Amino acid sequence: MTRDDVLVVGAGPTGLVLALWLTAQGVKVRIIDKAAAPGTTSRAMAVQARTLELYHQLDLAEAVAEAGRRNPALNLWVRGRRKARLSFGSAGAALTPYPFLLIYPQDQHEQLLASRLEAMGVAVERQTELLDFEDRGGHVAARLRGPGGEVQGHEARFLAGCDGARSTTRHRLGLGFEGGTYDQIFYVADVEAGGPAADGELHLSLEQADFVALLAYGRPGQGRLIGTVRGEREAAETLGFADIGQRAIESLGLRVERVNWFSTYRVHHRVTDHYRRGQVFLLGDAAHIHSPAGGQGMNTGIGDAVNLAWKLAAVLKGQAPDSLLDSYEAERLPFARRLVATTDRIFSLVSAEGALADLLRIRVAPVLAATAFGAGPAREAMFRLLSQTGIRYREGPLSRGMAGRVRGGDRLPWVAWDGGDNFAPLRRIGWQVHVYGTARDGLRAWCEGNGLPLHVFAWHPRHGKAGFARDAAYLVRPDTYVALAEPEGEAASLARYFSERAIVPAGA
């Protein structure tokens, strides 16, 4: 009988990120996957800015950004004409170091994450399946089937189910997965193409008959087409690329020269009842699935993993009580519900059929999008939503205070200046304090006495523009969200924050 701190079930991006972040914090991890080998087709494609910000912690951001293709803008096409170009750079340049939509095929993404994990001493155990488990209070006893069909026992303090929409973990917990399945059937095709839309940007064609999105990646002319199958739905599984409607593709002026991969699938929208049951947790598609609108799915699973990883590490090291783990569900479940509702509305708009739907999609939506993107606040709001930089936990149990426009639960705002930015210290996975202006002597002494890094940045008008208050203290969590915003910069407020939650202010 072997035993680890955390048994991670599923080696997709969510499970790999969880294993990486736990291992980086000194947690003993075992990660298994029932597949014989990693996937070889490009499934999830979009890597959002917030994911790249989190990847900065393990020096992954630049490697991923360089390996993928930066799509700098979204273009809306109707009846062969480009109606709007929405620039991610103009919308996000002041918000994040990554003001673009990165397209990086999931199979390549997983390979990079797995290789980084193996370099840290942890290899994915393939052809190893979770059969069952029992939560025994202080630990989980699991039954696994190995590559040769042998059944083995394994014990872990915690079990993390990152095993997808058909999650064995969720089924064994008996948790619900409320939601439904859309009537429409989608197709995906990896293609090599030419024409005006094969320019390395994101293109969306809205037509009466169908719609299609083109996401550029890889070498010039290579991209992923995503569209709906109209009619012949009963036989959709037998269709090939030549069978689907070409009107939306042709409206982009796109010449498809080669199809490397094609598939059809149905789209679901579901969220589980709970993210935690005792010593067992659900993450990623095991907890929530939704339409591909906005490229949110994989990024949301990665966000789940980073949120949970530091909390598990703190509890396992005796730096926090078990109750800290309840905040994982309290923070991530409400976000998943909002996300499913938002992507449902977007999906319904682009895929609905009928005269009214055509009117809204073809005539109204492009005009509204272009108008909204022309206004600064609306443009930034749209970028925050798509990039996930707008995710916050203001109502969560770990969020307190307000200083300037920054509140506890907000993502730490990014501010850059000549030669640096305030995200540089976030490479450290651990608690830290930021002051923009001058730090009080008492705060300095308290942070030094408690081993808490204090980063003081000389005041700059850009700090105020980003929402910071001068001389205030911002307690930053290990996942780079603000836990406490203390307007007076008083050490007593920080001491009280940790004392009330029985958390030791230490990092990895």
From TrEMBL:
Residues 5-342 form the FAD-binding domain. The keyword Flavoprotein applies. It holds the Pfam family FAD_binding_3. Its cofactor is FAD. The keyword Cytoplasm does not apply. It comes from the Bacteria. Keywords: FAD, Flavoprotein, Membrane, Transmembrane, Transmembrane helix. The chain crosses the membrane at residues 6-24. This is FAD-dependent oxidoreductase. It comes from Pseudoroseomonas ludipueritiae.
